[in-house]
Amino acid sequence: MGEKKKEILIAKADIDKRVVELAEAIFRDYEGKELIVIGILKGAFIFMADLIRQLRCPCKVDFVRLASYGTGTVSSGSIMITKDIETPIKGKDVLIVEDIVDTGLTLSFLVARLKERDPRSLKVCVFLDKKERRKIPFGADYVGFDIPDHFVVGYGLDFNEMYRFLPDICVIKE
Ligand code: IMP
Ligand code: MG
After folding, report:
1. Contact at 8 Å (CB) between 35 and 60?
2. Ligand 1 pocket residue status of 101, Cβ below 6 Å
3. Residues acting as catalytic residues
4. CA 75 to ligand 2 center in whole angstroms
5. DSSP the chain
6. What percent of the chain has pLDDT over 70?
7. Per residue in 95-124, pLDDT tens?
8. DSSP string of 43-69?
């Protein structure tokens, strides 16, 4: 597979600064509570690792893996949980952490499924938000950066499983 041309959209220094701000906002909202942070695999793993280390409230972590039928850069309508969380969340304060919200289908699905388990509260923190791409209305409670409709990689985000390791958020140039 040939290397694609990439251009930096958000540099690591700006990512680091924004993660600290997000963690502070989350800390203010959850001070004194014990938070359960749920990351969506695989894309959120780097962002979540950075975020929880900046959070000053104690938290437990868990992960969920979702699959959507359809491949490539467009997600399709039907989604399923292929690896569920292992932590009971009934009566708990839960924060979902995701790399990016695009059409909104993935997060709407997961929020609906987790709400069925009666958490005390359920909020969503996304690192990136492509608001103009929504197919259904979805608003995250904490957003790192709003970005235009470009396909981005790095900081955990992939293109065909490549580029997750890049420290910056980059746009792929075709
Ligand atoms: P949604 O269900 O359309 O909101 O899609 C969210 C999922 O699509 C994310 O968790 C990503 O895995 C993937 N995705 C959407 N846009 C991008 C992108 O620009 N780069 C990498 N993955 C993306
Ligand atoms: Mg993802």
Report:
1. yes
2. yes
3. 102
4. 10
5. -PPPEEEEEE-HHHHHHHHHHHHHHHHHHHTTS-EEEEEEETTTHHHHHHHHHH--S-EEEEEEEEEESS-TTS--S-EEEEE---S--TT-EEEEEEEEESSSHHHHHHHHHHHTT--SEEEEEEEEE-GGG-SS----SEEEEE--S--EEBTTB-BTTB-TT-SSEEEEE-
6. 94
7. 999 999 999 999 999 999 999 999 999 999
8. TTHHHHHHHHHH--S-EEEEEEEEEES
Report the C-alpha gap between 99 and 84 in whole angstroms.
Answer: 18
CB 60 within 8 A of CB 36: yes
Cα distance from N-terminal residue to C-terminal residue, the chain: 14
Give the contacts of 131 (CB within 8 A, at least 6 positions apart): 146
Q: Which atom of ligand 1 is nearest to the CA of 43?
A: 12
Residue with token string 């985000």: 157
